[in-house]
Design a protein that fits this description.
CATH class of the largest domain: Alpha Beta
CATH architecture of the largest domain: 3-Layer(aba) Sandwich
Distance between the termini: 36 Å
Number of domains: 2
Order of helices and strands: EHEHEHEHEHEHEEE
CATH topology of the largest domain: Rossmann fold
Structural class: alpha/beta
Length: about 220
């Protein structure tokens, strides 16, 4: 039985990867989320620390935030994991939700090698449509939080992922798993969660660097 951490985006792929790793016998000890410098807001997905903490609480796992720019992302990621070794000395593997982009796998393997961790990619080379189909079959729930403005309109923000919306995406030429960054999600419930994470929209969608983002807070 090996202890691991999960590189946690808050979205569907990292969640399903964690689920599969646990089914393989790995025991997660903490979640690690990279955030925009000085903002405590996750990179790519734009999730607030409040939402990320609510997810972690429902998963019964500590959340560790790593604030970093893209320019020193690797350095800060490695430094943060090096710090966590003092708190979680039994951890020997990292779980990542990458599916089939080779450069991503290479980056994960190199980073884990630098800190003497096993790199675990439970979704690697799975058929993209099957990844999201499995996510839904298992009973996970997720809402769309960010979309590529060149691919989709803001009307999709806050929509819950289901087979109908995935068929709609496919008809529009959008990858149903969003592996190329077409959209990002926030997971709110599922078999790993002790209770649903109840979120609500905050304000209007914001366009930033070619992506529409919808902010959320926790509805207590």
């Amino acid at each position: 039985m090996k202890e691991c951490f999960c590189s946690w985006s808050g979205g569907k792929d990292s969640c399903l990867a964690l689920y599969r790793a646990m089914k393989m016998g790995y025991v997660p000890k903490f979640l690690l989320t990279t955030c925009i410098e000085q903002e405590n807001r996750s990179r790519s997905h734009g999730l607030s620390a409040e939402v990320l903490q609510a997810q972690a609480k429902s998963l019964n796992l500590p959340l560790i935030l790593c604030n970093t720019s893209w320019s020193n992302y690797r350095e800060n990621f490695i430094n943060k994991l090096t710090e966590t070794k003092k708190l979680f000395p039994g951890v020997s593997a990292g779980v990542f939700g990458d599916i089939d982009i080779e450069d991503h796998r290479k980056w994960v393997q190199e980073v884990c090698l630098d800190i003497n961790y096993e790199s675990l990619l439970p979704l690697w080379k799975c058929e993209r449509k099957e990844v999201i189909a499995e996510f839904l079959r298992l009973g996970f729930s997720a809402n769309i939080v960010a979309i590529d403005s060149k691919k989709l309109t803001p009307a999709y923000l806050d929509r819950m992922i289901d087979m109908d919306i995935l068929e709609d995406f496919t008809n529009k030429g959008v990858d149903p798993c969003g592996e190329n960054g077409e959209f990002h999600t926030v997971v709110t419930d599922g078999p790993l969660f002790t209770k649903p994470v109840n979120i609500k929209k905050c304000g209007e969608p914001v366009l930033h660097s070619g992506y529409w983002f919808q902010d959320f807070s926790v509805n207590t």
